[in-house]
Amino acid sequence: MNPPLFVRVLALAAVATLAGCQTLEVKKPTVEQTAEIRKGPEDRPQRSITGFSHALRCMDTLLLDYGVRDVTMLTEEITDETKKLNAGTRDMLISSVSDMSRRSRAVRLVAFGKDTLNVVTFLASAQTTAAYQAIPLYDIKGSVSQFDENLIKNQKDMGFGIFPYLNLGIAKDAASSMLALDLSVMTTSDMGVLPGVTSRNSVVILKQGSGFDGDAAYHKFGINYSMNLARSEGQSQALRGLVELAAVELIGKLTKTPYWTCLGVSDPKANEETKLEMFDWYHAMASTRIELIAYFQNQLRRRGFYDGPIDGEFNPAIDEAISNYRAALGLSREALLNEDFFYAFLAADHTKIQRPAQPAHYVAPAAVAGAPGAPGSPGAPAPAAPAAPLKLSVSAPKQQTRFARGEAINLSLQPSQDAHVYCYLQDEDAKVIRFFPNRFARDSRIAAAKPLTLPGAMRFQLSMNTKGVPETIVCFATTRDVMASLPQAMVGTDFEPLPGATLEMVSAAFDKASGGTLAKENFRVQAK
Predict the structure, then answer these.
(1) How many C-beta atoms surround the C-beta of residue 52 within 10 A?
(2) Is the peptide bond before 455 cis (omega within 30 degrees of 0)?
(3) Does residue 164 have a cis peptide bond before it, meaning omega lies within 30 degrees of 0?
(4) Could you say which residues form the signal peptide (predicted)?
(5) Quick check: 47 and 225 in contact, CB under 8 A?
(6) What string of H, E and C letters represents the secondary structure of 155-169?
(7) 57 pLDDT above the threshold of 80
(8) Tens of pLDDT along 305-352?
(9) What is the pTM of this model?
(10) CA torsion, ordered 298, 496, 62, 257, to nearest 10 deg
């Protein structure tokens, strides 16, 4: 039996009323209640984002500016301890680090194993698996540590009925969930966690109705980042944002680069979290003094203010360089490595600081006055003639050039004067690899009075290839550090082939970067 006409009219009116009802608002109170849980002592800045891809590209530029290179890392399987997500978290991390190293080539990430035992076994055998194999310095461990569903949930409904003809109803619901990711960096030498190099972040996921309307909210450095979630991805998209944020944070902390600038913090001294971060970095390095001095020796040499060793020891040249850079930053002109200088250095736009015409040159200490052969002492030689052209010696013990297949190769590098030395290998497959300086010895400077042995105590090996195919080692010596002036394609990552590079291309790059003032030495490796 069809319902009477007046019932049909009422039904249509009811549907229209329910469809347009504004009293069933559930999203706003859910957002407000969730925000109340996370609310701090004051309101936080809000930023709408589509992801952290811009921060990854910013980090790539930052790593280039700070001269970061040869950071090699393993990453194990990043497990989901909640057992509620089905996403490739480790693959997301690999993609994030890859995007962060597009131009800088600063970080190389290797996926390996599902447990620590596998990693330890790999590290123990790495040096015997292939010639020129090198051990990564760091390992990333962590997990999806939290996924609290329906942290806050609101539901409202309304119905309309005329018995026995009509029963209509509508319901709306909104819920928030919290997802957390914890990652840490360990050293592969002892599998110990690096103090302070951790990332612990969470994201609030808001869903309304059947999940078609979703948002994600991240919080870092007092800033709230909000992102709309795609219908097809939802939780996985929110997790990807966490992983990208973690990648920026971990690499920034590991390399002590001001990563917060890539997350929108313009004044780190005015932000309590970044101020504490800088405080921790400074005092951790200053506790031994050597690390702090070496940090600035490296940075000021890269920026053309210093030309000397990176040994963590004060000398007149680094004193002069510190004084000059302090003045460039608007600080007092004095050789003082204090907190104010460190904070100003991390907050500075170094591209706007003009390089000096000449860096502060390091001069090795003279012999003790009065000692035999010292200037002014009896029998001392006449003043030295003008410096001879730079020369470089590359040799093996007993002048050996032929090696059995698989035999270890040891080299001695000795410039005729203090110089910066860079060594490349063209292997049996004609691939070109940079193996010095490297992740184990980052300073390219070699003193004439102290030859360098490769590999020595460094955790890699040189050996004759098992095919018996001749290989070529080429080393370049320059009077100043030219690494920052080389095309990034000729720097690459240590112990990794340079795509498309030849020794001729490398040689041309060094000739241009050094202005022609360089020494070049070839060492031919042949099979017995």
Answers:
(1) 27
(2) yes
(3) yes
(4) 1-19
(5) yes
(6) EEEEEEEECCCEEEE
(7) yes
(8) 999 999 999 999 999 999 999 999 999 999 999 999 999 999 999 999
(9) 0.78
(10) -50
